[in-house]
Amino acid sequence: MRTPLIELPERAPPNFVTEIDGLDIHFVHVRSKHKNALPLIVTHGWPGSVIEQLKIVDPLTNPTAHGAGAADAFDLVIPSMPGYGFSGKPTTSGWGPAHIARAWVALMKRLGYTKFVAQGGDWGAIIVDVMATQGHPELLGIHSNMPGIFSAEIDNAAHAGAPTPAGLSADERLAYERLSLVYAKGIGYGYQMGLRPQAPYGIADSPVGIAGYFLDHDARSLAMMSRAFDGQPEGLTRDDVLDNVTLTWLTNTFISGARLYWEDFASQVSFFGVKGVSIPVAVSVFPDELYPAPKSWSEQAYPKLVHYNTLEKGGHFAAWEQPKLFSEEVRAGFRSLRNS
Question: Is 308 a catalytic residue?
Fold first, then answer.
């Protein structure tokens, strides 16, 4: 491993780079001062970077400074996905969710962790689901704030724009209708990058172009970010948003990050569908997520559901938007696994 990666402010978390399967992987690694801290790897999504998780570093590694107990401490690893931030840009195909999932296990083992847990939202949610299906004995459980809970039948119907199926509960109906809206009007960027990831290359050298493309992620996130730029910050601030855009621009990772969608289209892994996870799972439902996962479907998707909670506020970028609530959920979600 090589460190330091770059000159960082005094209070910045430690950054490292290591090579896995021929590719440089950047990651933040912070060990807790508390004994018996639980190792945790957290994965960001698109359009994102490790910047999404920087607000949760201290609450998770130093819980006693944030109203929690030492028994809730984590050793935290936050990698940049291949093609994102300071990680390398794949020059060959094959770096899809399954490869990333295996690489994360290799990273944790290289750091000396023989047992650990994993958390993810957006792409991170897909990656931790896939990690959980690969049979790694080191992985004790996962936490997701965008759980894959839709059966193939429901997922396909929503994708096709079919009417809401009969017999659904109110929570299930809302989730189906929100998913249908995502497929119809909210994930055009995903189709574009999945089919032609090189096509938006003209945007890559324009910070304004990147900002415009990134901000229009989903309706609720756009509304929240728009309020921040209008002087009404709730969750993200103007600087938060601009930090993420700037990192993408300076590292020239707009196109290399887009290729993950192409990889997923090639592998045909469902964004939102059930993956067949059989290890312990914790689910946190933030109301402005792309869809609010019903408990009934979460229990069906994850037979070993150890934690389920719905929050009063927060959306798709939960760790970034609501770090206090998010950190509380991660602590609660993994509490029962600490003696495993």
Answer: no
Name the active-site residue from 84, 113, 176, 261. Answer: 261
Per residue in 201-258, pLDDT tens? Answer: 888 889 999 998 888 888 888 888 888 888 887 788 889 999 999 999 999 999 999 9
Q: For residue 47, say if its preceding peptide bond is cis, omega within 30 degrees of 0.
A: yes
How many angstroms separate the Cα of 181 from the Cα of each of 86, 139, 268, 307, 328? 34, 34, 21, 27, 30
Pick the catalytic residue: 26, 44, 307, 316?
316
CB 275 within 8 A of CB 130: yes
Q: What is the DSSP string of 62-98?
A: -GGGGT--GGG-EEEEEEPPTTSTTS---SSS--SHH
| CA atoms in the 13 A half-sphere facing the CB of 335 | 14
**30 HSE (CA, 13 A, CB side):** 23
DSSP 53: G
Q: Which of 75, 122, 240, 288 is an active site residue?
A: 122
Look at strands 38-43 and 74-79 and give their pairing: parallel
Backbone phi, psi, residue 53, to 5°: -105, 0
pTM exceeds 0.90: yes
Q: Is 213 a catalytic residue?
A: no
Q: Is 136 a catalytic residue?
A: no
| Angstrom distance (rounded) from CA 16 to CA 268 | 32
